């Protein structure tokens, strides 16, 4: 297991994936909660079967995969349905995350999760890194990226914790408002060195404690 775990998060459209990829380019192992969430609902999985039984077969694409946009529309329009889905998926996702963290190597690794704070996954990490942009920037970037309806994107933003609370829970913050990749990369490089040092410090402290 990696000696030090960084929890990476940010609101929709913040550029979290861009930051995650930059850390990956530095050789850091990334455990991506979004990828794990897709893996637990692959065709013929128990979770996807339960979802189809609950919401109807129209929730599936012709190839048997989950129709994510259709599911998202149903969930964001109904809190009860959202709670049902979370009760089904969150334990499966959490267990897969724990397994991935246990298998991670290196001085430190990153747990990348858009709902790191909302789903209390931050209790699994040593430090929380937030990628931050304004709500207006979130809205503009997401609508442009996903060709989404503004109302739907607003609903997603409102379903996440507020920008102020997210920053308040952060140990480090990357400012991605300008979308200047070189500026973001410089912040990532600085944090990379910081996390390496923290991992070594924690390791030394643990060795001293064991003595």
From TrEMBL:
ATP binds at residues 13-18. InterPro entries: Depp_CoAkinase, P-loop_NTPase. Its EC number is 2.7.1.24. Pathway: Cofactor biosynthesis; coenzyme A biosynthesis; CoA from (R)-pantothenate: step 5/5. It catalyses: 3'-dephospho-CoA + ATP = ADP + CoA + H(+). It is found in: Cytoplasm. Pfam families: CoaE (PF01121). GO terms for molecular function: dephospho-CoA kinase activity. Keywords: ATP-binding, Coenzyme A biosynthesis, Cytoplasm, Kinase, Nucleotide-binding, Transferase. Transmembrane segments: none annotated. Catalyzes the phosphorylation of the 3'-hydroxyl group of dephosphocoenzyme A to form coenzyme A. Belongs to the CoaE family. NCBIfam families: dephospho-CoA kinase. This is Dephospho-CoA kinase. The lineage of its organism: Bacteria, Pseudomonadati, Pseudomonadota, Gammaproteobacteria, Alteromonadales.
């Amino acid at each position: 297991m990696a000696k030090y775990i960084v929890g990476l998060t940010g609101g929709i459209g913040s550029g979290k994936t861009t930051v995650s990829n930059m850390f990956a380019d530095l050789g850091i192992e990334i455990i991506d909660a979004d990828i794990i969430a897709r893996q637990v609902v692959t065709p013929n999985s128990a979770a996807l079967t339960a979802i189809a039984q609950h919401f109807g077969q129209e929730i599936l694409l012709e190839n048997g995969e989950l129709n994510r946009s259709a599911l998202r529309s149903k969930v964001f329009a109904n809190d009860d349905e959202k709670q049902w889905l979370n009760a089904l998926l969150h334990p499966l996702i959490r267990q897969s995350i724990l397994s991935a963290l246990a298998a991670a190597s290196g001085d430190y690794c990153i747990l990348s999760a858009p709902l790191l704070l909302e789903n209390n996954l931050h209790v699994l990490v040593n430090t929380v890194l937030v990628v931050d942009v304004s709500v207006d920037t979130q809205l503009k970037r997401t609508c442009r990226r996903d060709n989404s309806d503004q109302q739907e994107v607003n609903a997603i933003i409102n379903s996440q914790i507020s920008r102020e609370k997210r920053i308040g829970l952060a140990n480090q913050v990357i400012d991605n408002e300008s979308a200047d990749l070189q500026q973001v990369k410089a912040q990532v490089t600085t944090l990379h060195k910081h996390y390496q040092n923290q991992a070594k410090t924690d390791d030394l402290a643990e060795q001293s404690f064991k003595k």
